[in-house]
Amino acid sequence: MLVLAVSAVGALFGAAMPATVLAKTAAIAPPLAMTGTNAMGSATPVLAQLRPVIAGRGITTPTSCTPPSAPRDPANPLMSATAPPFSDPIAGASIFVDGPSHGAAAGEIARLLGIDISTPIGNYLPAFPDDESWQQFLTTTVASRLPSEPAAIQYKVQMLEKIASEPEAQRISAFAEGGSPAGLSAFTTKLLCHNLTADPGTVPIITTYFMHPVLGGCPSTAQIDAYMPLFEQRANAVVQATGSQPVVYLLELDAVGSSSCMVGRHSLSSWERMLRYEVDAMATLPHAVVYIEGGYSDANTPQYAARILNSVDISRVRGFFTNDTHINWTINEIRYGDAVSRLTGGVHFIVNTAQNGNGPKLNPHPTTQGVEDLCNPPGRGLGPRPTTSTGYPMVDAFLWTHIPGNSSGSCNGGPASGTFWPARAISLAANANGRLGPGFPSQPY
Fold first, then answer.
1. I want to staple 375 with a disulfide (CB 3.0 to 4.6 A). Which of 138, 229, 321, 411 is the partner?
2. What are phi and psi of 96, to 5 degrees?
């Protein structure tokens, strides 16, 4: 039986809500405790753009979502109730856990229990309001329905709970609401002013994905230059919609890790200019903690990654994150990240541990196939749970920077890329292990 590390609290409209609290106290932390605080405040300029996004759902657009007006405190940029210890700005922050309406694993649990079974995966579940929390869903719907379900369903639910109970990274991409600046502004506002009502008073983890999905991994200078005006508008729209809201931004999946092809095309400097624009724009946000994608240990040298990161103004933000689309052992990423950190002025970093509990599945012919199988490799497992208790001074956190169970393509039986695949999510959960790598103790959970 999965034991959830969930304890009460927080309030919105009088309802108890959970939030995941990250605390830097031990080398490998137990499941995150839950806590919470207050609700969000009054209106933002983009709420008018939000209404078409949620029209037809029978939802009243928030009329108040005023972000905090306090000036940035460098020691506590996310305005946590208690100033973070160890100079780690996300330590002690309450991190957003999604509810059944939008949460991938929580929504699949609802379907397993016979709710909204005809709603396609990836769509919101109309049976639940946006402000129903994971904890509320767990202690009411799941608690009342699960005992009467067959053992096979109970097992699947218990596995999916391992994912649903943890912070779920949100993504703002070139495809969100059609990718127009107005659409991206509305989408960002919806995340911050509406979806977050499922866990009020918390801080979301949001990844951006505007470069690679449009240009791929090897664009020419002309292609980059042609996209630059729209890219700038997209970045500006997200920054303006974010305003003073506390948020952890992870910028541009694969931006450094998959960039080496551009060296031969002599377009890497233009790519860096594009990434630098987004970094500099995000650096103006008063209550954002920002990390830039910094590659992966099995594809980039620390020197290569550090040169790019220095070029794109990493000194203006908190640091970088690694392993975002790879499945390398956590300890290998820590060693790689430490080397990159030494070459970038001692900036801090995050390691993605979403599915590296069994490490990577290595390809038999790495020269022609790549070092590891990245397309739904079988036999993988959830890695160390999200925590700031990393035990490594330069590692701010282990986080799941994408949703465990999202397909990486129509290979090995998977659905379209980016689609939540319940069978894979259950398999990852069944193999969950907090082990850092070979030679470290196994920590199944």
1. 411
2. -60, 130
Question: Would the pTM count as exceeding 0.85?
Answer: yes
| Residue 68, domain member (yes or no) | no
> Is residue 325 in some structural domain?
yes
Cα 32 to Cα 12: distance, rounded to the nearest angstrom: 21
pLDDT value of residue 87 = 84
* Burial tier of 14 (Cβ tally within 10 Å: 0-12, 13-18, 19+): exposed
Task: For residues 63 and 229, give the distance between their C-alpha atoms in angstroms, rounded to a whole number.
Answer: 32
* SS3 call for 128: coil
**Contact present, 319 and 309 (Cβ < 8 Å):** no
Pairwise CA distance, residues 128 & 59, whole Å: 11
Mean pLDDT of the chain: 87
Within-domain flag for 140: no
CA dist 198 and 200 (Å) reads 6
Find the CATH number of the domain harbouring 203.
Answer: 3.20.20.40
Q: Is residue 196 part of a domain?
A: yes
* Residue 303 lies in domain: 168-430
